[in-house]
């Protein structure tokens, strides 16, 4: 739980600080090369979801964001794995970052535009650090699921092995508790060798 909170807080603060700096130093539509054609700053205001998807439905994404945020907070105490804690921390921090923009930025509460400024020219989208955190959490989810790592940090194969061991122990206990079979009673000698009738 502590790791989740720390990761979420770091993601949120870095995202919000970056957005404040972008708004203060760039004008909307301005493009600045950071790593040549590999990475650029391109300040836009996004009314949609991550990577500018669904512009025009900001209030819907605000409601969905609040719902998902509530679910993550409610589910967090069940997480015992460090990897899953990092995953949910990335997701929580990213959701909070973009939801803050939608709730408190122009043009109004619940319909605010998200500040996007990162652009990789070979990709068609402009995004922000909160989007990066959300996508990273999804990638980590796939990795953990493929590897069979549960919320408690244990692999599915380990759980199956434990179940087999438990089943074996139960079977052994059942066998040990069964009463021993009664020994067969020898038939009387007379029954085995009946006397011949006297003539």
Our measurement of the CA-to-CA distance between the termini, rounded to an integer number of angstroms, reads 100 Å
SSE run: HEEHHEEHHH
Mean of residue pLDDT values? 82
Distinct helical segment count:
6
What sort of overall outline do the alpha carbons produce when their principal axes are compared? elongated
Which structural class matches the secondary elements? alpha+beta
- How do the strands of the widest beta sheet line up side by side? 1-2-3-4
Low-confidence stretches: none
How much strand?
5-15%
Largest sheet: 4 strands, antiparallel
Rg measurement, Å: 33 Å
Q: How many strand segments?
A: 4
Pathway: Protein modification; lipoprotein biosynthesis (signal peptide cleavage)
Region (Disordered): 155-199
Main location: membrane
Family: Belongs to the peptidase A8 family.
């Amino acid at each position: 739980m502590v790791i989740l909170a720390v990761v979420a807080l770091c993601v949120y603060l870095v995202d919000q600080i970056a957005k404040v700096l972008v708004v203060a130093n760039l004008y909307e539509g301005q493009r600045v090369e950071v790593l040549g054609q590999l990475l650029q700053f391109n300040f836009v205001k996004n009314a949609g979801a991550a990577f500018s998807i669904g512009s025009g439905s900001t209030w819907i994404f605000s409601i969905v964001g609040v719902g998902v945020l509530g679910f993550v907070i409610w589910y967090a105490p069940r997480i015992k794995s460090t990897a899953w804690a990092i995953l949910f921390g990335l997701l929580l921090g990213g959701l909070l970052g973009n939801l803050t923009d939608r709730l408190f930025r122009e043009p109004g509460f619940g319909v605010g535009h998200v500040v996007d400024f990162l652009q990789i020219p070979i990709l068609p989208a402009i995004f922000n650090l909160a989007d990066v955190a959300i996508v990273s959490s999804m990638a980590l989810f796939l990795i953990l699921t493929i590897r069979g790592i549960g919320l408690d940090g244990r692999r599915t194969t380990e759980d199956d092995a434990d179940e087999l061991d438990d089943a074996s122990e139960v079977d052994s206990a059942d066998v040990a508790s069964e009463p021993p079979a009664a020994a067969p009673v020898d038939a009387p000698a007379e029954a085995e060798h009946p006397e011949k009738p006297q003539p």
